[in-house]
Design a protein that fits this description.
2 domains; Rossmann fold; 391 residues; alpha/beta; disordered N terminus; 16 helices; nine-stranded mixed sheet; 15 strands
């Protein structure tokens, strides 16, 4: 995937010593034990942006795929943990041990379980940034593998720990304005760096000929509304097919969806490379994003919303206040009750019966991305923050 957007080479891993405008070396280390090494937000956007701006950039991951050097970024692998518990316990220890061997101006970590790592680095005198991708206390309330009482207890315990530890960091980066507001309760220096599309992903708009289909791209689960979307396909009267791109996050969800009456109107492709997924988006009438109204979904800004808009297609999204604000501001789609298959089917039929309207909505969304909702502005905010906190 990353080889489509950047050249690859090999060099000895570690942190080298480039110089800033003042003649002093500057370097950054990013850490994630959860996300893949080529994660869009962490690697493609933040790390590559820093490397392109002259920062010697290192990314420490835990996936067992080894060390490499890609797009100016040294990727250091501490090995893949054996399960959820190992990921939360042993992987952070190994990441800390690796980080302590590196001399960098900024250490930037991306996972809640790395809070102790960030605190240890801070005690060692390092400048540390916590990147909050989610409102974690709210996210914990949606964890289906925890019973309701446990969710409440764990959420409150984490919130207390986050407030205490988060106040000690040099800065907090938040993935959305609402997460920024949450983090501002415990840290005075918070910047929202939104997940807007990269310029390379905006280059191509929709295809001239649209297929009679809609698409869903991303992880597939009941909480992300795919059950209702597939059920809606049995109610659609316009002959539209659903292109389902992504992997099921649980076998149970896969069995439930594949047994739905609407499954006969679905083409399931599994995981696809980004360019392949984008090709499906560009030819579709609309992209579907109907997450359930769980605490961490309502105020989220999913990548896929902006990627659909960048592809120049209309969107069918959950009727959450933040999402409705975007859709209505730019007139780029339709908001629906994500738990109502009939409402979803009606939105699909509406766009299929009026393709000119669907095309106009897609054009409006794409123009919004081209004019303001793109990574260029977010990159400038990230670099400005680093200039502010680096020595």
């Amino acid at each position: 995937m990353v080889r489509e957007v950047a050249s690859q080479g090999r060099s000895p891993p570690g942190v080298a010593q480039p110089t800033s405008g003042t003649g002093r070396a500057r370097s950054a280390v990013h850490l994630t034990s959860v996300h893949p090494r080529y994660d869009v937000r962490i690697f493609l956007k933040q790390c590559v942006s820093l490397a392109n701006a002259g920062w010697q950039t290192t990314l420490i991951v835990a996936d067992g795929k080894g060390d490499e050097f890609v797009s100016g970024v040294s990727i250091l692998d501490v090995g893949k943990p054996g399960g959820r518990l190992a990921r939360m316990v042993s992987a952070p220890r190994r990441m800390l041990a690796r980080a302590e061997t590196l001399s960098a101006d900024v250490f930037h970590f991306h996972d809640p379980e790395l809070l102790p790592v960030g605190m240890r680095l801070k005690r060692l005198g390092r400048r540390v940034v916590f990147d909050s991708h989610e409102d974690v206390p709210k996210d914990i309330l949606s964890k289906e593998y925890l019973n309701p009482v446990t969710r409440q207890v764990v959420s409150r315990l984490y919130a207390s720990f986050e407030r205490w530890g988060g106040s000690k960091f040099d800065a907090v980066v938040a993935a959305t304005p609402s997460i920024r507001d949450h983090c501002a309760r415990f840290n005075a220096r918070v910047v929202d760096i939104n997940n807007y599309p990269l310029s390379a992903e905006i280059a191509e708009g929709p295809t001239a000929q649209r297929a009679v289909e809609i698409c869903y791209v991303g992880g597939i689960s009941a909480a992300r509304g795919v059950v209702e979307v597939v059920e809606a396909m049995a109610l659609v009267r316009s002959g539209v097919r659903l292109q389902l791109i992504g992997e099921f996050l649980s076998e149970a969800d896969g069995r439930r969806v594949s047994s739905s009456p609407g499954w006969g109107h679905v083409d399931a492709h599994g995981h696809l490379e980004r360019s392949q997924a984008q090709a499906f988006m560009r030819r579709s009438l609309a992209g579907v994003l109907t997450y359930h109204p769980e605490p961490n979904h309502v105020a989220a800004q999913p990548n896929k919303l902006f990627e659909y808009m960048a592809a120049g297609i209309a969107v069918i999204v959950s009727d959450f206040p933040l999402w409705r604000q975007i859709v209505e501001r730019f007139d780029c789609g339709i908001c629906v009750d994500p738990q109502d298959p009939r409402a979803i089917a009606e939105a699909i039929d509406l766009l299929a019966s009026d393709p000119d309207r669907a095309i106009a909505m897609g054009a409006n969304g794409r123009q919004a991305i081209l004019s303001s909702l793109n990574w260029d502005a977010e990159e400038r905010k990230l670099l400005a923050l680093y200039d502010e906190i680096a020595p």
